[in-house]
Amino acid sequence: MKARLPVTSAILTNRFERRAFVLGAMQGGVGLLLATRLGYLAVAQNEKYQAASESNRVNLTLIPPRRGWVIDRFGKALAANRADFRVDLIPDRIEDPDKTMQTLAGLLDLPPDRVRDIRDKLDKARGFQPVEVASSLDWDKFAAVSVRLPELPGVIPQRGYSRFYPTGAAVGHLVGYVGAASAEDYEKERNPLLITPGFKIGKDGLEKHFETRLRGVPGARRVEATASGRIVRDLGTREDVPGKPIQLTINAGLQDYAARRIGLESGSVVVMDCETGDILAMASMPSFDPNSFSDGIGRVEWKMLSEDDHVPLRNKILRGLYPPGSTVKPMVALSFLEAGLDPNATVQCNGGLRVGNRVFHCWQRRGHGTVDMAKGIYQSCDVYFYHFAQQIGMDKIAAMARRLGLGQEFPMPYPGQSYGTVPDPAWKMRKYKKEWALYDTVNATIGQGYMLVNPLQQAVMASRIASGREVMPRLLLDRNAPPVKPMGFSQQHLDYIHAAMSEVVNGRGTAGRARIPVDNVLLAGKTGTAQVVGLNIANGKSGAWKYRDHGHFICFAPFDKPKFACAVVIEHGGGSSAAYPIARDVMTYIFAPDKAMAVLEEFEKQWGGNVQQRMSARYDVYAAKYGGTAAKPAPDDEDLTERVEEGRKPDQDPASVQTDAAAPAPEPEAPPQVQVPTPAPSPTPAGGQ
């Protein structure tokens, strides 16, 4: 066994010095690394961390821009902005959703159905998507939320501007609405503005089509804040740049009047300047209130709209398709004249006409006696058109229909149109692989069978017949637009058609109650009643609403110097008598607004108030019945547009094509047997331009 050497002080000193050296070297290395890292951070990364530090101290908040206004031809607002106090929620910042909602419900007096709507939206929202709690708040409620912010993380009260539609539902289909940007919208643009609380984009109609123009440029606010978020001072604000306005050809007063005058019916009114093509009114009713859609529609209101058999979500002007009935007879007569038929040629109407092995009846089963072209129009004699349409042929009639705008899709700033059907032999062969038959011509010549049109096409047809010009419907105002070119019709032919259409209203025709109560202004028009189902199911006048005939009326005024044209369609109104009183009052508004308003006010007393009042009363009924228990939640902003679009899809073909050519009666009247007087020059319209 080897003996151990004694441990001396020298050995201990040596060991200590070695260990001290190693430890010191390690400490020196660590110190060098720390110094190097600190130097790197202080010098090379100085700019990055200075910016981060500044970001912690300074908060930058985007200020949503004010949207450009939508104004009418006189500068009156159809869609504007108003100062607004609002409260939003940021889902991923909320710590206790139940407690937060309970507190907000108490502070803002939120009804149970509204609380349920907000909870539904919170469940569906992405973390970054703001959810609107309330808007248009008064100062007291806004302040009550603001002072409780420390205990309400995720709650964002703010002052700004919100979209406002002064006439509400009257412009729902015309202007559209705005809503919060969806996740898909954000993925497309990656624009932080889209997730800024209070910012909304166009979701439908003109608001969507002109989004880029209307949006504007956001402003920004820089504030110095503590680590807890308390604002120390305001460092500066960059004002937003409002979006550019768009000016429409619409006459706001006429638009509102037309929407209100439709009343309790389901229908549409289009008024055009037949010299320029400017659309002065384009009302589809019932409609939705774009203010509600923009604020975030609730489950009760959604239930009210989605269960309405009058389909308030459908733009009936562009998406509604209807057999035009006898409103096509002036067009058919013009095709006869252009084909060389003598307007004095007559046919004997005994109440029907045999075509092949079938008898096709006239609406007047007693017959009209001897009928020439003018009488065929003003008495709406079906037999006259049955007889001469077989001589002229469907190809020439269909060509004239297309020339006057039927079956045409117009360049309008909306996502789609349903342009209907102008049938002819080639069309039937393509679609059904069947030969054209004489009864097809008989049906088409009185606006039944396969023929389908939308109300805008009928207004264009009336405008082109009135002016003889190839007017195209125009919604954006252009005071320097070039004159509309003539269509090449014989003025003698047009004058003949005009005189016959004047007789419809002012003489021996079927719409004597359509006369407008304005001195020296005569209205020319044409009634139309379109069958929906066969007479074996219903008589078209009474019974179930969905089985009643559609009512049509096209017109223009003054008849001797046409300036304004109008088309009215009333769904299931029971016939033309539901349509032409509306057209009469709407056209009266152009020349004498006070007289027209007096008539409307009397009607609204019977109807239970104006559009907004009736919608509010109906909502109250639904809220009382369903309250917070409405079964289905309202669609969120992301799929509301899809639901609206789905609700607008029309039937591309009639449910059952009427082939018996038994045109319903056009509500004939028996005014005195007088000739139409030659009118004096008409006055300058009070509200038309």
Automatic annotation (TrEMBL):
A single MF term (Gene Ontology): penicillin binding
GO biological process: cell wall organization; peptidoglycan biosynthetic process; proteolysis; regulation of cell shape
EC numbers: 2.4.1.129
Keywords: Carboxypeptidase, Cell inner membrane, Cell membrane, Cell shape, Cell wall biogenesis/degradation, Glycosyltransferase, Hydrolase, Membrane, Peptidoglycan synthesis, Protease, Transferase, Transmembrane, Transmembrane helix
Domain Penicillin-binding protein transpeptidase residues, every copy: 267-587
Domain Penicillin-binding protein dimerisation: 63-234
Membrane topology listed for this record: Single-pass membrane protein
The protein, known as: Peptidoglycan glycosyltransferase
NCBIfam families linked to this entry: pbp2_mrdA
Principal EC category: transferase
Region (Disordered): 628-689
A Gene Ontology term for the protein's cellular component: plasma membrane
Gene3D superfamilies in alphabetical order: DD-peptidase/beta-lactamase superfamily (3.40.710.10), Penicillin-binding protein 2a (Domain 2) (3.90.1310.10), Penicillin-binding protein 2a, domain 3 (3.30.1390.30)
Stretches with biased composition (Pro residues): 678-689
Pfam families xref list: PBP_dimer, Transpeptidase
Bilayer-spanning residue ranges: 21-43
